[in-house]
Amino acid sequence: MSEVIELLQQLIRNECVNYGTIESGHEYRSVETLQSFFGVQGEVFEPAPGRQSLIYRIEGSDPDAPSLALVPHTDVVPVDPAGWTQDPFGAEIVDGFVFGRGAIDMLNVTSALAYAARPYIRGERRPRGDLVFAAVADEEAGGVYGAMPLVEDRWDLVNADYLLTEVAYPPVSYAKERSVPVAVGEKGVFWSILRSKGTPGHGSTPFGSDNALRKMVEAVHGIFSEHMPVAIIDEWESFVATLDLDDDLKSALVDPDQVDGAIERIAANDPLFAKYVHAVTHLTISPNMMNAGMKANVIADDAKTNVDIRALPGMDRSFVDSHLYKAMGNARDEVDIEPAQDLEATVSGTHNPLWEAIADGVEHVEGHRNLLPILMTVGTDGRFWRTKGTVAYGVGLYDDRLDFSTMLGLFHGHDERVSVESVERTTRLYEQVFESFLG
User: Fold this and answer.
1) Under CATH, which number does the domain 3-170+347-438 receive?
2) Per the confidence metrics, is the pTM higher than 0.85?
């Protein structure tokens, strides 16, 4: 068994599950694992007990050379074992796949980055520019106990011109030619809390009552029912141009008035890819948690709904709130919007040394230089660096056993897995990227 696969297995088995609470995560377990793997003590950043991030900063030989940060995370989302065919924290290898929570998101990349960076961290190789390795906590809950305070409080330690993190995507099934997707940006995150107030009373006499839940249900029904705003961005147009689809469908995919019909056509054959297409062409709003009242026979005097909102470039908080108020209809005056997180979309350009280094690495491993810039629908820690001016990408190499659509369904899903070959290919890619960029 290769060392990079053994490291991946151990990180999965560490069970650093992030429930979004300060006492969850336990990322210190993987900090210990990584320090043992490197054989070198790094700097531990711990804004809350057990919520540890591990940082190494290796000084380059040329102070004028560009710096590179590697920013994987070590926490994973919760899991329902009943939906799995394998132990989600057993990290067993079945038919060439490593099964486990975090195998795709993103412990595969964490392991590959760590393995490729180890010679530099150990001093066996000297990078031309500064190299930062930061394995961070709490990515799955917004980085509040990880990347966010790390960038705010220790920019001297983690600043960099360029950055590699997630997401590493497999090739797109519909592409005209084999290309390696490179995540160049991500949608903005505008998580919100909706609140409504009412007057308590006995549940047996609801006539004329001032029920907070009624107001909330009306508001949420409107949000679910209202058409989500469309935006066709440059990155999406470039993406569609690479697809091997009929001209009518391609034309519809970049037309705001026709894109919804095009998505329905795609969904008939590939519902997972249709989800991605919808997400990268729309403001998406998903009310996911609702709480109200105190007891079954007491009229609710308060109600709360947590809403996941992802916005495309150009959509800010005022745009989001305007749509919410419109969607809530008559309930808009009875429901307050409380911002929980405001992070606008971030996108990095592609004409720079790291982009060329990635192309060099892909050419060395795969024999071509076809890179496909894509926008992520999810949030990553890369956004904290992008807001500081850092160019940030996510990239990896996969074998043909896992396609783009299938992988999308594994994120936070059952039977999350990654092939051994894909992890080893991704590791070779990183080694070549480092050779080109840092050598």
Assistant:
1) 3.40.630.10
2) yes
